[in-house]
Structures are given as C-alpha cells and as structure tokens.
Amino acid sequence: MKCKNWMLLSFLVALALTLIASAGWAKQEGQEQGKKAKVELPAAVVKAIKDNVPGAEIATAEVEKEAGINLYDIEFKADKGEIEVAEDGTVMDVATIVAMKDIPQAAAEAIQKAVPGATIKRLEKSEVRAEIKKEGEKGTIVRFDSPKYLYEAELEKGEQKGEIQVAADGKVVEGPKWNKAEAEEKEEMGEKEEAEEKEEAEEARPAAVDLKVLPPAVLNAFKTAYPKAVIKGASQETEKGVTYYEVESVDGKMNRDLLYTAEGKAVEIEETVPPESLPAAVHQALAKEFPGFKVLKAEKMTKGDQQLFELQIQVKDKKLGVTIDPNGKIIE
C-alpha cells in the first residue's frame, strides 16, 4: 500500500514539474517570437502558430483590439502566408498562397470576370474558422463547425493596383478595389514633399535659443564641425554624475542632434540620412527579412566607434521600426 502511495505521489510530482516546464517554455517562446515580431505574443498564440504553421518564421506581427478582444495578425516569411489568432489561442483565419488552378472553378471565373485585363500578382486562400460576434462594445468569439473559404487576389492593371475577394461559390465578397494611379500618387507625393520642405525651412529659421547654457568649448566645437547648421535647441543634462550638453540643429534638409561633454567632445550624434545612402549590406538584409520593403525614414546614430541605423520602413500597408548595423545585422 505504501509503495502504491509513493508511486502515485511520484507521478503527481513529475506531472506538476512537466506542466511548470511547459508553461515556462511557452512564456520564453512567446518572448523570443515577440522579439522577432516586435510584439510580445501570448503563450496561447505561440502554440496556435506552432500547431497550424509548424516551422514558419515570423516576418511581421501586429495586434489590434476588436470588441475588447486582442487579435494577433502574423505574416510569415518565404510566402508561408498569414494567420490571425485571438489572445486565447483561437485561430480566426489562416491564409496560404495558392495558384489559380488550386481554387474552385466558380471562384476563379468570378475573379477573371470581375477584373478583365488585370494581372493577378498574388492569390491567397483564407480558411476562416471563427468570427467575433459583437454585443454592444463587447464581443464573443464564435467558432464555426466547419471553416469558410475565401479567395483574395492582388491585382495589377497598368499603373493601378487593387484587390478582390470572392467566396468558393463565386460570390464577390469585397471589391474590386483599386489604388490610385501611380501618376496621381506621385503628384500627391510631390505636393507632400513640397509642404514638408516648406515646414523644414520654417523650422530652420533661427529661433530665440538661449546659447548661454552651452560652454564655449561646446559652441566652438559645433560651429567648427557644422559651420552652416542652425541651432534649434540647447540643453544640459546629467547622467551618472557627468554633465552633457545637447545641441539640436538643422543643416539644410538634415536634422542633427549631438551630445557633448563640457570639453567639447561629441559623444553621440544622431542625424537623418537619405535612404539611398544606406550601405548595400543594409539593403540586402532588409530585402531578405522584409521582401518588398520601402524605407520611409532613416537616421544614423553614432556613439564612439559604434554606428547604428534607425529606420522606419513600409511592407505592403504596414509600417515597422527597424534598428540595424552597417553590416546588415538587425538589432531589433
């Protein structure tokens, strides 16, 4: 009898340790995946990803709240598709890349009929497994007895790009929706750039900045290094008992912030740089990690001998922040 009791006790202890280890693993995995995705993923979400898309590597991740429920939209690298998972681990939707021959004939015919003359650049099959039923401001997840299938095509026609979504029976669910023509986008972009240049010119005008806060050595060092720059701001800060002096400036179209010691030594420089001036290794690393990326803004940070680039990039309709070194190593 004692032997049986000991065996039962040993089993329960082993089971408890296994559960604790599993919980710890899930939390650690969520943090590791979160670092890659720039969003910390709950353990239930990580498990859902592993169960449904094993071996896939996350490219981007976003979280949004709908009717009080957090939804995690995960996009994978190497055309592995996407998945949307609720915070409790419920899989809402799984999207995979497919070919026209792989979708129902009714869906294929509906797409071709709705967008004659358009080129299909990408075709996705969405397996919708659940939806959120809204009741006022709160929502409840409703799981379907069997999945619903939708097919979404990314289109190109001349300078226009668009998309359409159809059901398996050929019913058009959404679209076709077309983006603005490239010429129109360029015109709007030119107007925006012109407005930004005007704003930068306004900012570059000398303002009433109290330069008395800067020691002569700091002011001389700045004017010697950047004779055409205009100081926009000056301040003093103390870190670990050491006093530093920050100079905010504009040099043409470039914003530049510097941190000096009292002796006039620049210990940290942060400045905007043109995206096209980024090292080739940076462009190659971004192309590998974020296919189809576009750099919206680039800043170079220099601290001692170390250099890093802080970038704002766009991948499709998503904007991401990326920190990367000149050799193409992504820091975060």
Helix and strand arrangement:
Layout lengths: L1 H36 L5 H10 L5 E9 L2 E8 L5 E5 L4 E7 L7 H10 L4 E17 L2 E20 L2 E8 L4 E7 L3 H23 L11 H10 L4 E10 L2 E10 L2 E8 L4 E7 L7 H10 L3 E11 L2 E10 L2 E7 L8
Antiparallel strand pairs: 1-2, 2-3, 3-4, 4-5, 5-6, 6-7, 7-8, 9-10, 10-11, 11-12, 12-13, 13-14, 14-15
Helix pairs in contact: 1-2
Features:
single chain, Nuclear Transport Factor 2, Chain: A, 2 domains, 6 helices, 30% helix
Your description of this structure?
The chain has 332 residues and is of the alpha+beta class. It folds into two domains: 30-184, Nuclear Transport Factor 2, Chain: A (Roll), CATH 3.10.450.360; 205-324, Nuclear Transport Factor 2, Chain: A, CATH 3.10.450.360. 30% of the residues lie in helices and 43% in strands. The chain contains six helices and 15 strands. The chain has helices at 2-37, 43-52, 105-114, 182-204, 216-225, 280-289; strands spanning 58-66, 69-76, 82-86, 91-97, 119-135, 138-157, 160-167, 172-178, 230-239, 242-251, 254-261, 266-272, 293-303, 306-315, 318-324. The strands form two sheets. It has an eight-stranded antiparallel sheet. A seven-stranded antiparallel sheet has the order 9-10-11-12-13-14-15. Helix 1 (2-37) crosses helix 2 (43-52). Mean pLDDT is 82; it is low at 15-27 and 33-37.
